[in-house]
Amino acid sequence: MISFGKAYEAVMAERWTLAAETVRLDDACGRYLAQLVVADRPLPPYDRATMDGIAICHRDFRDGHREYRIQGMARAGDPRHRLSGAGNCIEIATGAVLPEGADTVVRYEDLLSSAGAFTIQSDPSEGQSIHPAGSDADAGSVLLEPGTRIGPSEIAVLASVGVGKPKVYSLPAVTLVSTGDELVDVDQKPEPHQIRKSNTRALRAALTEFGIVPEEIHLADDPQIIRMELEKVLSEPGILLLSGGVSKGKFDYLPEVLEALGVRKCFHRVAQRPGKPFWFGVGAGGENLVFSFPGNPVSTFLSFHLYFRDWLLKSFGFDNNGQQARLIAPAENTSGLTQFRLATVENREGTLWAAEVPMNSSGDFLSLARAEGFLCIEPTKSGYAKGATVKWIPFKFK
Ligand SMILES: Nc1nc2c(c(=O)[nH]1)N[C@H]1C(S)=C(S)[C@@H](COP(=O)(O)OP(=O)(O)OC[C@H]3O[C@@H](n4cnc5c(N)ncnc54)[C@H](O)[C@@H]3O)O[C@H]1N2
Ligand code: MOO
Fold first, then answer.
1. Which of 64, 133, 221, 263 has its CA 20 to 30 A from that of 88?
2. Do the domains 23-43+135-169 and 2-18+171-315 match in fold?
3. End-to-end C-alpha distance for the chain, whole angstroms
4. Domain named MoaB/Mog: which ranges (predicted)?
5. Could you give the CA distance from residue 12 to residue 31 in angstroms, rounded to a whole number?
6. Separation CA 91–CA 69 (nearest Å)
């Protein structure tokens, strides 16, 4: 059995080379950029009016002009207009190009309208209500770095500079494997001695965060079938996420079958609770990583977030190991195992404060729905005072 720290390091040390592919912009949300994105022109590309009103030359105002004759109307989408002659103005819409010869915009609220003219009733400053060309970014400047997670705001940036098919990191092929003769599908009515599969459903849902659509198989508790099915999955590169069948039961065949199929065991059993029987290995040629999670629902769920999610983020270039929370109440852990305890958090002035959520056992998946993440409580003789800072593994995001 190895320590949690060593197990975590061993998983994170596994490198996975991510290829790149292009996707449609509308399919890019949640993916990770594999290219540099630069401004194709200054942003904004022209001096842009930020108010509806009139465009004037401020010198005219300084020279004492208060009434301005309307020379025309600049709408958003019009080519640049030209303002000429002292005491003239051009009406302008928000988003329109500032006319040549104008340097200031005065909003309608500060104007008195009369036939063919506007009178300024405020004291405008030179250059007001203009978003100057290039003030957000110069042409050629870097807007997004490779490794950036593409969210709605990054989509806006990509769209604005004309990247309609961004290059993103390819997603690893993932196969979800459920094991056990007691399991039936969600749409089946379980016999009294059966339960519905929930682990694979939860992991499939968790994978949507990354846009990963996994393959799925179920293995009956039969070593021959397990071997045959896993051999097929291992013949293609990819990640296997298994749940169940790795502890010490008479029907827990996975560790021996995986090794017989040439998957090198990196470790089996971690000094942690839940999740102790976790088995992790690397397939021949390094083309498969096998995360064989303990079957108890909380163990599978925790192990996925603790190991697989951080490993995947690391493959995209992120170190996700730094999240912390402070304990609302004192805690103890003299078990000698790293304990992961369910909790909810409250953000108080930028600091997360965590309150533990009771859990009956690692079979109590209902408790997951009441919590927002796991606290990592390392074993210690001295205990944790109220306010102590510990590692925090969130799985719900407000
Ligand atoms: N003698 C020992 N027994 C056990 C030990 C041990 O160290 N010595 N460890 C215990 C711990 S800790 C855990 S966790 C479990 C893990 O066992 P397995 O990984 O072999 O998992 P299973 O026995 O197949 O299943 C455990 C439990 O979870 C349910 N399960 C499994 N898959 C699903 C699924 N897809 N959806 C919903 N529920 C699932 C399964 O029905 C079992 O109730 O071993 C302890 N035993
Ligand atoms: O991993 Mo087991 O979950 O400690 O119950």
1. 133
2. no
3. 36
4. 175-314
5. 20
6. 10
Q: Which CATH number fits domain 2-18+171-315: 3.30.300.30, 3.50.30.20, 3.40.640.10, 3.40.980.10?
A: 3.40.980.10
DSSP state of 173: P
Q: Is the CB of 245 under 6 A from ligand 2?
A: no
Each residue of 137-173: pLDDT tens digit?
Answer: 999 999 999 999 999 999 999 999 999 999 999 999 9
Which superfamily is assigned to 23-43+135-169 in CATH? Answer: Molybdopterin biosynthesis moea protein, domain 2 (3.90.105.10)
Alpha-carbon distance of 314 to 300, in angstroms, equals: 20
Query: Is the C-beta atom of 269 inside 6 A of ligand 2?
Result: no
The percentage of residues in the chain with a pLDDT greater than 70, rounded to a whole number, is 100
Coil, helix or strand for 41? Answer: coil
Q: Which of 217, 218, 296 to probe ligand 1 with, by most ligand atoms within 8 A of CB?
A: 296
Reported ipTM: 0.95
